[in-house]
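USER:
Working in pairs, take the chain set out below, taking as long as you need, and write a paragraph about the fold.
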Amino acid sequence: MMAGSSPKLHRYIDARHRQLGSIFKENIGPVACVFIADPADMRLVFAKEGKYPQHLLPEAWTVYNQLHNASRGLFFMDGVEWLHFRRILNPALLKGDQQWLQQCCEPPIARLVAQICASPDKPPIRQLLYHWSLEVIVSVLIGPDQYCQSRRRLEDQIGLLASSVHSVFETSAKMALISSSLAAKWRLPRLLKEFTDCANEICVDMKIVTDLILAAGDTTAFSMEWLLYLVAKHPEVQSRLRTEPTESPYLKNTVKEALRLYPVAPFLTRILSEDIQIKGFDIPAGTVLILSIFTSGRDSESFPEPQRFDPERWAEGRALRAASLPFAMGSRSCIGRKLAEYQLQTTLAQLVSRFQVEALNEVQMVLKMVAVPSAEVKFRFMAI
């Protein structure tokens, strides 16, 4: 866990929860961790996280920062520094109406649709979604007008950026096989150099901008791939989406249901600065708390028939919303939640209004820093 990921860790921890209950303690390497799957207990953790919430970082990333004395963006910050920059970014990314979202997302979405139209039979969807994801965040960062004016000039650079971001996550997942701190000490050459080179390719002076791009790269692209996969497997959902207005709850619920089944971050971490009691267990300050988002989203008490993809279940109201926390909550919740939700919803609506989507292969969920399909999903898009 501290190294980054293990491909089937979510399955192992899910089985342990079913064996031991919604809370249990287990060592991950030398570190004693407490795993929590009850959404009510997760909310208690978020409520107790304090003014400066702390979370764990992948070991490879922290070792890189130490080796190169690198200052990084919001994801890597803690304490007063984190709070200062978070307060600056909150109004820009989490507040206000949807007009700015629409303006920033429309051009990259239109470009994605056009690319699929040009190659509807087995398009290179993962590559296209990487570009789409990064183009949206670039549009947010420089403004939609500047993005449209500069898109052709930036096309090659965005392609290189997409490749670099993907390499960072791929290489980090490989480095999970060995302690990065030991690799640095022993100077194991190739993987550390590969990780360093990948990180340096996207390292710019504006560290916060870098981390916003990193955060948006894999996470939104893979969330969209999972969303398309589920919708492709359920043509009745596609038909329903075509009859619903774009502002309908059903569209939003379809995205919620996909994030429930395939949360791109199946675990969230917190380290509290005060003692906490959960389910009668006294947990001292400084304990690593790991919130099992994958397991909580597939709990039959909250979600009857939890393996079934059913957007309609979310029409039942607030109780389900409390049981699924893919973006976390509290002051350190996902800064890009509003953008990601709008981006996923609008892109899905655009695609199913133009195409009948089919998935041509079966995939499973594996961890490579984030939750990804075990193989690239092959899609066919048939014009309606």
